[in-house]
């Protein structure tokens, strides 16, 4: 396979200015790059780390309307998110799938009438909903009540979606690349200034320190937690808009319950916590909402947050959870729009798009807030904001019904795709077949290629991860490190041993050393 650097395009316009310079390789940045490239714009995206290496891989991994946002009267946001949920289920059926959520009723949190009203609105705010609607549950007879501690007799079930969040980012970047965009990871924006009606930006390869000057007609600030830093310190633009950083943390424990359902649990402080089946053998628990005033780069869960999440779950389940049960944790900083709410949990999850032109100079669009479910619509709104400055963007919108890479599973859907891969590669065990299609969809056949045995798949790194899969991730998905592969691309970090990870690290050093890019 080709090396990662062979997939890079040194300049999408052959030396001239690009239409859009997008700063940030999270879900919003890659979503905008994909949409704009598909309309014919020349796009350069720079990300200082790996794709989805921060907020976009630290979510609760849900494609949902946000049931709890209804009590903050966020009706427009919830409606938009529910409409987007249906669209995303269609365009990425390999990495997004329906999930049923069980909501135990506890009178100390919210009254039953409020829950019924909220669930009714949730089912009816969006037209053409395809998922099963809400229903009442009697935990004395429902299988959903078996893991619970018996203190609660009834509850509700409703539908939402699950997503492999970091893979959603990568697939948007892959599709943007296929449509002509230049995607550069490990490349940071050093500075940007307006010169002769254009943005002139210095970008730096963080691996080598090499710097390049690029010109762009529009600068898109999708820096996430760094949005204010990009605005004020790198582009020297003043803005009245403020970002409010809120840390959200999650823990993973051995599986607490059987079945495909997830649980949404109400706490005495009115916050909610999810308990979600995760990676077959585990349960994902989260999230917290903690104001964050430090640098957003390296974020970890605190002991207090671990205790809070353990107590939240233990309040409901027969099997209590303690900090000793935690096998993994992760935390991220959400860059929410600062609406001056006193409570971090009440800060709006809606987004604000701010265009700065300083008169009639080159525009800069900055993104405040947002959530992964609405990224595609956010990108459309961003394009609409930029259409007066870039006529090429006036081409019709197209992302609502074009599948992401690997999403063309065929009329028989996911199970049919698994069956076809099993027929192509009968030497793969059933679990590995399932995982490859769940991660890569129809692209899984490209990974297998002409292999006729497991030996043909190359060196094995544990949990079914083969050299062929690693080579694919390096060549097609910008993976460069063991962390990229195990935690953001394949999600196998929970399943491999330290020895496996060390062998993978050695393989990447030997077979895929990062090439030094040319410095101009």
Automatic annotation (TrEMBL):
Keywords attached to this entry: FAD, Flavoprotein, Oxidoreductase
Gene Ontology terms: cellular component: glycerol-3-phosphate dehydrogenase (FAD) complex
Record Pfam families: DAO (PF01266), DAO_C (PF16901)
Domain FAD dependent oxidoreductase span(s) in chain numbering: 19-340
Domain Alpha-glycerophosphate oxidase C-terminal: 399-501
Gene Ontology molecular function terms on file: glycerol-3-phosphate dehydrogenase (quinone) activity
Keyword Repeat (UniProt): no
InterPro entries named in the record: DAO_C, DAO_C_sf, FAD-dep_OxRdtase, FAD/NAD-bd_sf, G3P_DH_FAD-dep
Reactions this protein catalyses: a quinone + sn-glycerol 3-phosphate = dihydroxyacetone phosphate + a quinol
Cofactor: FAD
GO biological process: glycerol-3-phosphate catabolic process
EC number: 1.1.5.3
NCBIfam families: PRK12266.1 (NF008899), PRK13369.1 (NF009906)
Record family assignment: Belongs to the FAD-dependent glycerol-3-phosphate dehydrogenase family.
Protein name: Glycerol-3-phosphate dehydrogenase
Species of origin: Komagataeibacter melaceti
């Amino acid at each position: 396979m080709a090396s990662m650097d062979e997939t890079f395009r040194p300049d999408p316009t052959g030396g001239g200015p690009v239409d859009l310079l997008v700063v940030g390789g999270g879900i919003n940045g890659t979503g905008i790059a994909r949409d704009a490239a598909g309309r014919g714009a020349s796009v350069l995206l720079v990300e200082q780390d790996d794709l989805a290496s921060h907020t976009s891989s630290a979510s609760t991994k849900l494609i949902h309307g946000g049931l709890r946002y209804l009590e903050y009267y966020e009706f427009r946001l919830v409606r938009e998110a529910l409409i987007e949920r249906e669209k995303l289920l269609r365009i990425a059926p390999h990495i997004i799938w329906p999930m049923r959520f069980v909501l135990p009723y506890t009178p100390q949190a919210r009254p039953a009438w409020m829950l019924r009203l909220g669930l009714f609105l949730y089912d009816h705010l969006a037209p053409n909903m395809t998922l099963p609607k809400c229903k009442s549950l009697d935990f004395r007879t429902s299988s959903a009540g078996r893991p619970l501690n018996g203190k609660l007799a009834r509850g509700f079930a409703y539908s939402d979606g699950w997503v492999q969040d970091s893979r959603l980012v990568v697939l948007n970047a892959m599709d943007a690349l296929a449509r002509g965009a230049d995607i550069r990871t490990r490349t940071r924006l050093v500075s940007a200034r307006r010169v002769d009606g254009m943005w002139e930006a210095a970008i730096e390869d963080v691996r080598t320190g090499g710097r390049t000057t690029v010109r762009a007609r529009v600068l898109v600030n999708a820096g996430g937690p760094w949005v204010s830093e990009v605005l004020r310190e790198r582009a020297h633009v003043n803005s009245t808009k403020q970002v409010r950083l809120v840390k959200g943390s999650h823990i993973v424990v051995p599986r607490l319950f059987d079945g495909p359902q997830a649980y949404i649990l109400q706490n005495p402080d009115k916050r909610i916590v999810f308990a979600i089946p995760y990676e077959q053998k585990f349960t994902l628990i989260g999230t917290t909402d903690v104001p964050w005033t430090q640098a957003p780069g390296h974020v970890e869960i605190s002991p207090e947050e671990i205790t809070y999440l353990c107590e939240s779950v233990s309040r409901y389940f027969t099997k209590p959870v303690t900090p000793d049960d935690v096998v993994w944790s992760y935390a991220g900083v959400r860059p929410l729009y600062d609406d001056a709410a006193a409570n971090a949990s009440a800060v709006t999850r809606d987004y604000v798009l701010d265009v700065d032109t300083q008169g009639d100079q080159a525009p800069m669009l900055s993104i405040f807030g947002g959530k992964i479910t609405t990224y595609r619509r956010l990108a459309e709104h961003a394009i609409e904001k930029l259409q007066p400055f870039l006529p090429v963007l006036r081409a019709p919108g197209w992302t609502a019904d074009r599948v992401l890479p690997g999403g063309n599973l065929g009329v028989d859907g996911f199970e049919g795709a698994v069956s076809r891969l099993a027929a192509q590669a009968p030497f793969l065990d059933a679990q590995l077949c399932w995982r490859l299609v769940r991660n890569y969809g129809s692209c899984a056949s490209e990974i297998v290629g002409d292999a006729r045995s497991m030996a043909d798949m190359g060196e094995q790194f544990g949990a079914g991860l083969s050299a062929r899969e690693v080579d694919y991730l390096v060549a097609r998905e910008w993976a460069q490190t063991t962390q990229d592969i195990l935690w953001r691309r394949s999600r196998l970090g929970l399943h491999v041993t330290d020895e496996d990870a060390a062998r993978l690290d050695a393989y990447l050093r030997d077979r895929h050393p990062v090439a030094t890019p040319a410095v101009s």
